[in-house]
Specification:
2 copies of one chain form a homodimer.
Chain A (H helix, E strand, L loop, with lengths): L18 H9 L5 E2 L13 H12 L12 H15 L8 E4 L1 H13 L5 E6 L5 H6 L4 E6 L10 H10 L7 E7 L11 H13 L3 E5 L15 H4 L5 E6 L12 E4 L5 H16 L5 H12 L1 H28 L3 E2 L8 E2 L2 E2 L9 H12 L1 E2 L1 E2 L9 E4 L4 H17 L3
Helix pairs in contact in A: 2-10, 3-10, 4-9, 11-13
């Protein structure tokens, strides 16, 4: 018998778990409506000025290894973006360029987590946070956002939970927030962010803020990055080119560690060593993203159009969902997902997993089960496709619910 | 006190450890001759037909997420390359596309290694193998290649070592070979490969063959991939676009797991789950490499010229090194490194680390210490630069040795 790694069994991604079924359907000539992956580049072409910069880098011979931490122009662009937009005290040296935020999360967990260490998340959570912790031997402490308060954070409840479990205190490593939130679309208020910072500080946790959707807010939301508020406590800001810059396939993520405290410095040093183990990130893509950030005028033109379109689609989908008697969703104010609660009592399914699996097989609509986000009885629907596709998909979901209602 | 992960202290890359010193020198106007990183794209432009394919993918809008395992055309291209070149029974489904071989190594270690597990390496080894194991809690068993026999493998000695340590047997996870070898330039004979396969089989180890330099052989070497010989035992073949396709900055690696046995299948399944955790590899680069492989005529034209040039440069450097009274190197037959032994008795340095550090500071020549490869008293010199640069660098090393000789 060959013993595989004990923790490797925790690696899983619920967003893609039905891909094999979808592929089989497509092989049989079905057209699957894929509302599972949040990929803007499928519906909105990446902006031409970024493609041009990418092509230029290739033609100029930038096909060689680059600095493991990322090329200087991109690190500087990322830092200056945070200085410009959020008044953050970030410098190029505080930035690590990664293969998407996913790789940054892997590095962070590898560097911070020993077996049986703990980290704090709120559910519904982005599904990959948990396996990234568990494959390093850590265990999650999972609090719940308050659905009654539009999925806002309930810091009192978190405080109580942490106080109850005082012997874990030494093992508390970090606290993650996703702002704007995937899957709920919540945009956190400065007051909530300040309370979280206080909690992270009091419990000696590193605060990790995943801000990958920070420019994708709408319905009047005003976005606050935690970066300015968190100055003075160890924290990591995560962001990247995938969402704001509509370039998922480039795989360019950023981790910003601006703290001058000893924990921040040591995190940065250890993450740099991990970065060296994989040599570097795709070099020409980094030049494309540097131009993507630095050409503010072009970017702003693009992101405004993109967000206006997303707002329309999301609001259309939210309205349709809330007209259904089988589902109910909080109105999102950021990102591009709908996270409706299913009325499971009126539906003849064992759970949300069965719902999603049968929906795909019967109606060729692929969405993701809420239990993958820590919320059984919910589903996540990507609101990026054009209105006619969203409409078709939501009509099919409605028919599907009707057929399977009690 | 914040406790960082116990194992994260093992992350280190000796090839880049002097980069900060080199940067400082350059900031002071010095021109550093960098013979530390094995990057062909610095000296030989990546072929135009691959750049064209990359640009085409970008212009056609292939900027979105792709399959976590890699795009089908590239997986098929990699499999067909192994079928064509080595008669390997590999199919597209056996191939995982990774962010360079480095990421494949991280996945493999994450999937195979529990705390205190063991893996077998030969020294001098590629420096990143060891941290990739140790950050997962594993411990290396390190045998030595036989320098007397041109750094060939001494399987008898390995057998003896494994027999002596029978209680480790259950913990033996894998055995790695690098063929052609970095840093020694050795190309293994089929007889040695067969013996290694036998040993891996007898001890229940997965055989990992890093073949990233498989098309870069010269001086009459005949290359044999282990892939055909290893059929029937669990094994993983590693390769990628960096060296044979002269595209280091693309970060495209391949792991091929063709076995139909249960260990191979389970490895493949678990590695696929890790691949999903980082969503995908840079999408347009995958199209470029698919074309790179599939356009065999163009590729062959390019690789022949590249290897002919490398052969000249390596042989020139080897000759100069062996004319020195301070160094002696085995003649390489593959890859593009020289790995001379320093005559430490005649030099006034504590160790190879001091040698390398002082050489950089005094002569602006950056090379890598042999102890980073498990061989104190040696250095690794990259033989890729044009003859005049190699000559200047070797002259400076010679002067440096003279000044510091006893």
């Amino acid at each position: 018998m060959y013993d595989f790694s004990e923790f490797s069994k925790y690696a899983e991604n619920p967003i893609e778990e039905e891909d094999v079924v979808a592929e089989r359907l497509e092989a049989h000539g079905k057209k699957v409506l894929k509302l599972n992956r949040g990929d803007p580049a499928v519906y909105f072409p990446t902006m031409k000025y970024m493609i041009d910069a990418y092509v230029r880098a290739l033609r100029e011979g930038n096909t060689r290894y680059s600095d493991p931490m990322g090329i200087k122009p991109l690190r500087e662009a990322v830092a200056s973006r945070y200085r410009r937009m959020y008044n953050t005290e970030a410098e190029a040296d505080d930035v690590v360029i990664t293969n998407g935020v996913s790789e940054a999360l892997m590095f962070i967990n590898s560097v911070l987590v020993n077996r049986n260490d703990k980290a704090v998340f709120f559910r519904p959570y982005y599904p990959l946070y948990i396996p990234d912790l568990k494959i390093n031997g850590g265990n999650p402490i999972i609090e719940r956002y308050s659905e009654e308060r539009n999925w806002d954070i309930d810091t009192d409840s978190l405080e109580r939970a942490l106080k109850k479990d005082l012997k874990s205190r030494k093992r508390l490593k970090y606290l993650v927030i996703t702002n704007p939130n995937n899957p709920t679309g919540t945009v956190l208020e400065p007051s909530a962010l300040k309370e979280l910072i206080e909690i992270a500080k009091n419990h000696g946790m590193v605060l990790i803020s995943d801000e990958i959707y920070d420019e994708i807010t709408f319905n009047g939301a005003r976005y606050t990055s935690v970066s300015k508020l968190a100055e003075g406590i160890p924290h990591i800001i995560l962001n990247g080119a995938s969402k704001d810059f509509d370039a998922t396939g480039f795989r360019i993520g950023f981790a910003i560690i601006p703290g001058k405290d000893s924990v921040s410095k040591e995190m940065k040093r250890r993450i740099a060593e991990y970065a060296k183990l994989r040599l570097c990130v795709n070099t020409p893509a980094q030049y494309a993203v540097a131009e993507g950030i630095n050409n503010v005028a072009e970017h702003n033109k693009g992101i405004r159009k993109l967000v206006a379109e997303i707002e329309k689609r999301i609001n259309f989908a939210a309205k349709r969902i809330n007209e259904s008697r089988y589902m109910e969703a909080v109105q999102p104010r950021g990102a591009y997902y709908l996270f409706p609660k299913l009325d499971m009592r009126s539906l003849r399914f064992k759970d949300d997993r069965e719902f999603v699996d049968r929906l795909l097989k019967e109606k060729s609509v692929q969405i993701t089960r809420g239990s993958g986000f820590g919320e059984p009885g919910y589903v996540r629907i990507v609101g990026l496709p054009p209105k006619d596709i969203l409409e078709t998909a939501l009509n099919r979901i409605e028919e599907f619910c009707k057929v399977h209602s009690r």
